[in-house]
């Protein structure tokens, strides 16, 4: 499923988070798929349980996975959680630009420059 490279400059929790996002995006992890428990996945990947817990928290905050209490953690049923998160971020950006009275052209230029950076 997902491999963690201990020699990478990318922290293990981020490698795991990115791996889950990629697997969901490609369909390797389908909506409703039950994910391993934190302890089980930590053991399988050879990382600390806190590493998996942090990745799961960030994935849940992004809407990519959902925890159903004692029933476990599952891939969200959202059609495209990454796109939904991007839409929320864009809405926040637009709201901030309006509050700062930045016109649409300038706001889009700022966003394009930030994406190129």
From TrEMBL:
Gene3D superfamilies hit by this protein: Winged helix-like DNA-binding domain superfamily/Winged helix DNA-binding domain
Record GO terms (molecular function): DNA binding; DNA-binding transcription factor activity
This protein's UniProt keywords: DNA-binding, Transcription, Transcription regulation
Pfam family, one: GntR
PANTHER family per the UniProt record, alphabetical: HTH-TYPE TRANSCRIPTIONAL REPRESSOR YTRA
Annotated ranges, domain HTH gntR-type: 10-78
Species this chain originates from: Microbacterium hatanonis
Keyword Manganese: no
Protein name as it appears in the record: GntR family transcriptional regulator
Keyword Protein biosynthesis: no
InterPro entries found in the cross-reference section: Tscrpt_reg_HTH_GntR (IPR000524), WH-like_DNA-bd_sf (IPR036388), WH_DNA-bd_sf (IPR036390)
């Amino acid at each position: 499923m997902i491999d963690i490279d201990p020699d990478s400059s990318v922290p293990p929790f981020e490698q795991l988070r990115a791996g889950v996002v990629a697997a969901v995006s490609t369909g390797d992890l389908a909506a409703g798929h039950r994910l391993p428990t934190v302890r089980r996945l930590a053991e399988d990947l050879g990382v600390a349980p806190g590493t998996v817990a942090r990745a799961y928290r960030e994935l849940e905050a992004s809407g990519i996975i959902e925890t159903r209490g004692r029933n476990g953690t599952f891939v969200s049923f959202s059609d495209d959680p990454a796109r939904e998160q991007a839409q929320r971020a864009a809405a926040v950006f637009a709201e901030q630009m309006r509050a700062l009275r930045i016109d649409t052209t300038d706001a889009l230029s700022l966003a394009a420059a930030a994406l190129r950076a």
